[in-house]
Each structure stands twice: as structure tokens, then as C-alpha cells.
Amino acid sequence: MKNGKMDQIFLMTLVGMLGSILIGFVFFNTSIFNPTLSNFQFVANGFIGALFFSLLKYTSTKEQVFSILLVLFLNLVLFTGREISLTYVIRDVFFIVGIFLSVKFYYQFIQKNPQIKFYLRSFALALIYGLINAACGIIVYMVNAKAGLPPMEFIYLTARYGILIGFGIGLGMDFYFQNKKQLSGWLGIKTA
Fold it and tell me: Alpha-carbon distance 65 to 57, whole Å?
């Protein structure tokens, strides 16, 4: 992969993640920076979602699949520690694939609908990721708890996180696209 592409992937991921962090900070203050709280999803999933979006933009399908597997492995190692169990693997597979699918559907949506204005189209990612995150939460709960449907509060929380994180990533991506040349210039990155 060329250096210019790597620089753009880095910049796009950073700006998208910052969008998610900004929305998380507005709603949950500094608790988003505590890895032991569920609010940390604004940092972790903000990074993962923005990374996947930048990979969709700048890499091949083979590199995207490799990246998904690498992110899954790193997530398991970093956030589960030494005791990796099937419960954690199921959780991480569903939620990481869920965010990838959300970003992929959103990417296809904005490619097919370029007339939608920047920042308005962020609501599409909020809706897509909210629905997919809730669906993944339901499946993970049913498989790991070996029970029926989870409580409505759980479904609401997973949907809310998905909506807010998706909106933040979408805002970050739109800010990146609208200001790509200026951001690249400030950081000394050549635009592709």
C-alpha cells in the first residue's frame, strides 16, 4: 500500500473517531474514556467504524477482510485479557461484523445518493448502525445467555449506542470529506 493511502487512512480514521468521541462526550462526558464502562464504545467503536470506512474508501476487498480479522483478534486480546472464552468471541464477532456491515451499507448508500448534503447523510449511518447494533445485541444475548429475547432496556441501550456512535462517525466522515485538502495540508499529507 502506498504511503499516501496510508496517510489518508490514518487521517480519515482519526477524524471519524473524533466525531464519535465528540458525540459521546456531549452525552456522557469523560466517562467515554474509561475502558471499564460501556460508554467507552464511543472511543473503541468510533475507531473501528472509522477505520472500516477508510478501508472501504482506500483498500481492496482482500485487505478489508484481513483488517476485520486483525481488528477482531486485537479486540479479543486487548479487551478480554488472558481468558478468551467462546462468550467473548461470539460477542466480538457479532459486534465487529455488525459495525463493518453498517459502515459498508452506509458507504454504498452515500455512493448511490451523492445529492444528499453533508452532515444530513450522517443520520443514515445512525439509523443503519442503530438497527444492526440492536439486532446483534439481541442475537448475542440469546446465544450467550441461552434465553429468549433480552429485556427492552437492553435493546434500547444497544440501539442508542449504535445511533449515537453512527451519527458521530458519520459527522466525522463528512467533516473529513468536506475539509480533506485543508486537513491534509495542515498535516503535510499528499492528497490522492
Answer: 14
